[in-house]
Amino acid sequence: MELKNDLLLKALRQEKVERPPVWMMRQAGRYLPDYIRLREKYSFFERCQTPELATEITIQPVEQVGVDAAIIFSDILVVPQAMGLEVELLEGKGPFLPDPIKNINDLKRLRKPDVNESLGYVFDALKLTKKTLDGRVPLIGFAGAPWTLLCYMVQGKGSKTFDEARAFCFTQPETAHQLLQMITDTTIEYLRGQVRAGADAVQVFDSWGGLLSPVDFEEFSLRYIRQIISALKDVVPTILFAKGAWFALDSMSATGANALGIDWCVTAQQARKFAGNEITLQGNFDPARLLAPVPEIRKEVKKMISSFGVDRYIANLGHGILPNVPVDHARAFVDAVKEYKI
Ligand code: CP3
């Protein structure tokens, strides 16, 4: 089907655009009143596993905030779940994995799943969303990077430092590499399935990439991300977001990804210099700035676009939107991008 708004795909192909496309990481969810209402009726994984609900949630920010792309409502942790690990989502607390991976024996509890069987519900959600969107905007699929998934699979819950996960890599490197390879193989199959189901682009989230030293990032993260991007880059445009890993922008650029996501701790000028001038950059509004007054948001958005330039740029936040952002502030962010004039 012909897309009525293909700004995102143009930016991913490095084509000229009249203004940059805009979407927000974690746009489908917790700051939207209609989502919060659904949360009262269904559990988190029920919402993910029921295509009608996932579709409704995915489309909410398209209709209510006016973003130029939809991102499928799901979670990065559905992959460890499909591999056989129990994953719970505790209200107000975040992910909890009661039996995390601690040593080589624990790998026996994991399997390389048949993605059509164990993650078919995500593919069904993508198909239904694609149909319901009816070409209004492109649909983004996604997966967690192997390192970020290892963080949760080993630590068993969220953490600011993931020191148990890091220690696991340094004390049992062979086991870590085996686990990372299993996740990588599953993720490649999973993302290929998402593309077959209708994803127009895919994003890999390495939310905890910045916790590793540059040398360790190469060994425990980028090596696996490279396999994923290589397997997908001729099939679908790819976006790679490794939060905090600005030190690796040059090597991430060399993976062949169409775009790199960046956070607010690096300037547009630095990011362009490190990543090279060819690749598209995505970001990097500080999500906390969406709590500033609306005129302030508008002013800062204009500054951001001026420093990145209109071409090879996707306006976005530097990380996920915060749950306490008023919807009209999110809308002001999106509108300010749409009104941008060179
Ligand atoms: O972007 C979107 O709107 C699509 C949906 C999406 C969710 N999670 C839904 C969700 C996406 C792309 C994710 C990715 C994700 N999940 C990441 C990578 C991106 C990032 O923010 O760094 C990570 C690290 C997770 C793991 C995860 N899932 C955490 C830490 C939490 C709890 C805290 C939080 O951020 O809300 C979740 C739960 C989750 N995933 C919610 C949503 C809407 C909140 C659950 C709820 O309150 O309903």
Give the terminus-to-terminus CA distance: 31 Å
As for the number of domains, it is: 1
Query: Per CATH, which architecture?
Result: Alpha-Beta Barrel
Listed once per kind, the bound small molecules are: coproporphyrinogen III
- Quaternary structure classification: single chain
Order of helices and strands, N to C?
HHHHEHEEHHEHHHEHEHEHEHEH
Helix share of residues? 40-55%
Q: Mind describing the biggest β-sheet?
A: 7 strands, parallel
Average residue-wise pLDDT: 97
Number of helices: 15
Rg (CA only): 19 Å
How much of the residues is beta strand, in percent?
Answer: 5-15%
Secondary-structure class? alpha/beta
As laid out across the biggest beta sheet, the strand order is 1-4-5-6-7-8-9
The CATH class designation is Alpha Beta
CATH topology: TIM Barrel
Number of strands: 9
Shape: globular
Low-pLDDT runs: none
Architecture overview:
The chain is of the alpha/beta class and 342 residues long. It has one domain (7-338): TIM Barrel, CATH 3.20.20. Helix content is 47%, strand content 11%. The protein contains 15 helices and 9 strands. Strands 1-4-5-6-7-8-9 form a 7-stranded parallel β-sheet. Strands 2-3 form a two-stranded antiparallel sheet. Helix 8 (146-155) packs across helix 9 and helix 8 (146-155) packs across helix 10 (173-196). The longest helix is centred in the middle third of the chain and has 24 residues, at 173-196. It starts with 6 loop residues before the first helix and ends with a helix. It binds coproporphyrinogen III. The site of coproporphyrinogen III (CP3) has 23 residues, from strand 3.
